[in-house]
Specification:
By secondary structure, the chain is of the alpha/beta class. About 45% of the residues lie in helices and about 20% in strands. It has helices at about 10-25, 40-45, 50-55, 90-110, 120-135, 145-160, 200-210, 210-220, 225-240, 285-310; strands spanning about 5-10, 30, 60, 75, 115, 140, 165-170, 170, 180, 185-190, 190, 245-255, 260-270, 275-280. The strands form four sheets. It has a six-stranded parallel sheet with strand order 3-2-1-4-5-6, with helices on both faces. Strands 7-10-11 form a three-stranded antiparallel sheet. It has a three-stranded antiparallel sheet with strand order 12-13-14.
Amino acid sequence: MRNKVTIVGAGNVGATTAQRIFDKGLSDVVLVDIVDGLPQGKALDMLESGPVISSDAQITGTNSYELTANSDVVVVTSGLARKPGMSRDDLLITNMNIITDVVSKTSELSPDSIHIIVTNPLDAMAQQSLKTSGFPAERVVGMAGILDTARYRTFLSQELNVSVNSVSAYVLGGHGDTMVPVIGSTSVAGTPIDKLIPAKRLEEIVNRARNGGAEIVNYLKTGSAYYAPSASIAQMIEAVLFDTKEILPCTAYLKGEYGIKDLYVGVPVKLGAAGVEEIIELDLTQHELAALQKSADSVQELVDIMEANQ
């Protein structure tokens, strides 16, 4: 029997994630959305591509949650997307209510699942998902750091005209303007990045990575990024389904690591069949640690606002 992955939200992020999973034949997929006909139509279209791409996976679209029962992984992408001029934090209360409704249903029907949260503002939504589900913290994880790191590595590879595979880097912290690219551990083929790129230019690249989502929103006008986010989600799903124990930057619940307690923040984790199996503590400089704690403070502010509105 194949694994089952449920994806809640059949918009661009959710549907593209479903396509990536179906194309690879990683698992059967259930695509859920409240819009009548939308998940059914997209799922059927993907299913009919199976003979062309040699995928025997099954994909089903639905407007209810019954078919999601006993999923191994649940990905939550549903919520309002950003528009030009909006920050991720502007979506807070509306998406908090959506997340609460969705996760209460998915966690009840799939009590042993790993939940991957994608809805923005992501760190706060992961915190709300943990509260709503009642799951152990290791089974609720957010997708952010892989995406932020991918943007950072992309810009560095372009700057140096090298393969992205030669760039080693991590971006930590909240998924927003306070995210923390860890320059001290960024390298290209083992060479520290600050020996290859002047400090001023490196800071420009860091800032572009921080604003990578907004840059795309400004281009699209009526939507936000979905190709890179869906690829990042798919990498997390593979790590869980195949128990790879890959070290990936994800939004995880900290219990004192990096001096941060009882809060979701982006850090490197060992990701496997049990979810977040270990928090990896990098050797940060004092400046980087202070920036990470400042980022955590920004997440805490959002969590406090949510608490006041419940």
